[in-house]
């Protein structure tokens, strides 16, 4: 059983929440979201927000929080082989409801199909909020180019920024 070791990134002004599924091996090692250099999350978010691509964890935190966004993952713990979302078993969800009580979250987005699937399965009915699924920024989602990801994320997130 792997345990999620990254605290949620948010503050009381956060208005949107972006949820991944479960941190990759690299993210768990680096103790921060989307830590694998091949993941395109930070490039996509920087382009959507009109910022340079952040280099350090502190830069990444500053960029997300300055745009009133929040980040976390749907799953708190699970059995997983490496970083393979398709291998997830025995998932236990994070307490998204607690995070919502401490913020001004208006919209919830899921980064990819696995996050969306587990959000719908474990969280949606508990908190009564639907998510908006975005195409995964994972390098495993090779069908989506960086440019196509940026365009899709920009369109979905435009209402918030």
In brief:
The protein has helices spanning 25-30, 41-49, 57-66, 96-101, 113-122, 124-127, 146-157, and strands at residues 2-3, 16-20, 69-73, 75-79, 89-93, 107-111, 132-134. By secondary structure, the protein is an alpha/beta fold.
Structure description:
The structure is a single chain. The protein has 161 residues and is of the alpha/beta class. It has seven helices and seven strands; from the N terminus they run E-E-H-H-H-E-E-E-H-E-H-H-E-H. The chain has helices at residues 25-30, 41-49, 57-66, 96-101, 113-122, 124-127, 146-157; strands at residues 2-3, 16-20, 69-73, 75-79, 89-93, 107-111, 132-134. The strands form two sheets. Strands 3-2-6-7 form a four-stranded parallel beta sheet. A three-stranded antiparallel beta sheet has the order 1-4-5. Helix 2 crosses helix 7 (146-157). The radius of gyration is 14 Å and the shape is globular. The relative contact order is 0.22.
Features:
four-stranded parallel β-sheet, single chain, 7 strands, 161 residues, three-stranded antiparallel β-sheet
- Structural class, by secondary structure, is alpha/beta
How widely separated are the two ends?
A: 38 Å
- The count of strands amounts to 7
N-to-C order of helices and strands: EEHHHEEEHEHHEH
Q: What composes the largest sheet?
A: 4 strands, parallel
Unreliable segments of 5+ consecutive residues: none
Give the strand order, joined by hyphens, for the main sheet.
Answer: 3-2-6-7
Helical percentage: 25-40%
Helix run count: 7
